[in-house]
Amino acid sequence: xxxxxxxxxxxxxxxxxxxxxxSTLIIVSSVLIFAWTTSNNQLIDTLxxxxxxxxxxxxxxxxxxxxxxxxxxxxLLNTEAIDITESAQRDPYFVSALDIxxxxxxxxxxxxxxxxxxxxxxxxxxxxxxxLADESTDFHSIYYGIDSTYNRGEKS
Length: 156
Fold this sequence. Notes:
Elements: H1 2-78, H2 87-100, E1 107-111, E2 117-122, E3 128-133, E4 142-146, E5 152-155
Antiparallel strand pairs: 1-2, 2-3, 3-4, 4-5
């Protein structure tokens, strides 16, 4: 009988130890998983915020550079610093404005109320071409290469 009680106490201790070990394992695992999840969420939030900030800066740069160029061109035309009807003034202006503009700007042009269209664009090989649509072109866009003074060269 004494041996049966000893067996029962040992069995109870083993079961208690097993329950305590499993409970401890579950609690420690839960705490670790919670801490990992929290840390992971913070990391994801930080990475998302950084990516969003970088993307927003790039989008703002892409959108603001054409706006600045257009505002500058409007100021030059409104103050009559450039006569848009004179190719000797107009062509170098459009070519130089596009030349110093970021590469993502493909073209820069302006039209008149009479249907005239002037400007410059980047050609297929990256060279800058002068765009022209007026009476001499039957108001169809024609593209010209440029010479060393940024004036109209040969027809492209």
